[in-house]
Amino acid sequence: MIEPRPNDPKDPTDRKKSKHPNDPKGPKDPQGFQGLSTELTARVPQLLEAMRSVGTGLELHSTLDRICETAAELADARYAAIGVVDEEGGGLSDFVTHGVPDEIARAIGRRPDGHAGLLGALIHHPEAMRLADLTADPRAAGFPAGHPLMRTFLGVPIRVQGEIFGNLYLTEKRDGAEFTDDDLHMVRVLATEAGIAIGNARLYEAARQRERWIDGSVAVTTALLSGGDADEALSVVAEQARRLADASAGVVLLPAADGSGGLEIVAVSADDPSTALGVVIPPESPVVERLLAGEPVFVADAATDPRMITGLARLYGPSMMLPLHSGGRVLGALATPRAPGARQFTEMERTLATQFASQAALALIMAEAQRDRERLAVYEDRDRIARDLHDLVIQRLFATGMMLESAQRKNLAPAVQDGVERAVDELDVTIQEIRTAVFALQQGPAEVPSGLRTRVLREINMAAVPLGFTPAHRFAGPVDTVVDELTGKNLVAALREALSNAFRHAHAQRIEVVVDATATLPDGSAGVRLTVADDGVGLPEGGRRSGLRNLARRAESLGGSSRCGPGIGEDGGGTTLVWEAPLRAPSRGRP
């Protein structure tokens, strides 16, 4: 190792270096390595190795872990930590430690928030601090139960691009010694390098965050415009929002179906979605008022915020609630709550989530317009079918009936007359049934009753067009009165998926649909059971199961289940789908 030569007054280069340590023509030395003690000079290689180690890698949290470990080794400290200052500058948003065993960290519980004590003093006065006994300092706030004993203390601020990022803390220098001026000098240099490494890691993390949110927006747009089930597309929005925001739940809210002016939870991605699905947030909630006005709502702690008036709020901590608005129209809201005590959402996360919500709202509007066009095409096709039935089929049947009646008046054998009479009666019945079908085809959506029985029949009749036959159907129990709106909505979606599978994949020639509102579920509770059986080819080996998983997820979100078995074809050929859910009170109250 070549030791630095003391400044020689005859050497103009050395005089220039000592006078201008930051001269761009000379080596960079922001902390002033010249004039260091022999002991400190001997530690320069260790410092350089520490700086090299700190600058390795780009992931932010691993960079903070590495800084803590490197600083502890450099200053020969037992414990090290980095407190990341929150965006308001009044506390800590993250606290990374080194040297504290996991079991002790769990026993201590909640990490410091930096609002008091020495940590708070360093936040409000970001200057280097060295103490022989931190417990004797009047600013010390004490330790929680189970915390390791700490006396010697060294703290230095970490700046990123001139702004305070956080503070580096070192405690308990080994062998009971105190931290020296040389330790302070070395840690200051390391903190400068740490600021550069953290800055690079933050830029990298921001780029990765943007990329993830963009990918999530693309996934949502694709799901909404794929022409699939609208409820399934909303579930994709909830799932993507939860994943991207690193939240405990993703929740989509739309205007309540009861017309109360509140917001109803229509899609949930969470560990237990059934507790939230269908909950209505009343219009008197201050949060609803702001969301419907197109304003985002950010909550530091949902459990204690007075604006959160539902029972669900007590389960969560930091929360983002964003309006789904596009083109001046508010479609609903998107919420991404985190667990109690979790870190707050950063400004970057808030911005990206707001952009994601706007993109999701635009995709919702486009999907709605696409469905309107598809419905219009269906209605136009129904009108054409109704006209053809009326103008062609009924007229021909009527003419055939007239011919048979004319033949009946001739001298025919009694048996022949009886047969002709029965044929005429059958033609009359057929004409009446066709006229009823024509009337149903000509009804608008607002004219169709909203009962579950009618919606099931509508799905069966719509499926009859591509199938080429009408599936047989049967109802058991008062399905219109005992099945609540949410369960009925999911049952109809399950029926639609099952009929679609029977047409597209099973190539069935016979389908039987049963809706039983008197069913008893495996746990003994009362429920409603949908059974769709066909004589098709059955489930292929290794085929896609996304549709069946969707059906199962719908049932599970309501506390039910879904399963498949043999069909009604010869020797058990085909598939039988059983979808069931418990009965709930049809009238839903507010939480």
From TrEMBL:
Pfam family, any one: HATPase_c
Record domain GAF: where: 59-208, 229-374
Family annotation (InterPro entries): GAF, GAF-like_dom_sf, HATPase_C_sf, HATPase_dom, Sensor_HK_TwoCompSys, Sig_transdc_His_kin_sub3_dim/P
GO molecular function, one term: phosphorelay sensor kinase activity
Residue stretches of biased makeup (Basic and acidic residues): 1-28
Family matches, as CDD domains: HATPase_UhpB-NarQ-NarX-like
Boundaries of every Histidine kinase/HSP90-like ATPase domain copy: 486-585
Claim: Transcription is one of the keywords in the record: no
CC terms in the record's Gene Ontology section: membrane
Domain of life: Bacteria
Positions with biased composition (Gly residues): 566-575
UniProt keyword annotation of Glycoprotein present: no
PANTHER family: NITRATE/NITRITE SENSOR PROTEIN NARX-RELATED, OXYGEN SENSOR HISTIDINE KINASE RESPONSE REGULATOR DOST
Protein name according to UniProt: GAF domain-containing protein
Organism: Streptomyces ficellus
Lineage per the UniProt record: Bacteria, Bacillati, Actinomycetota, Actinomycetes, Kitasatosporales
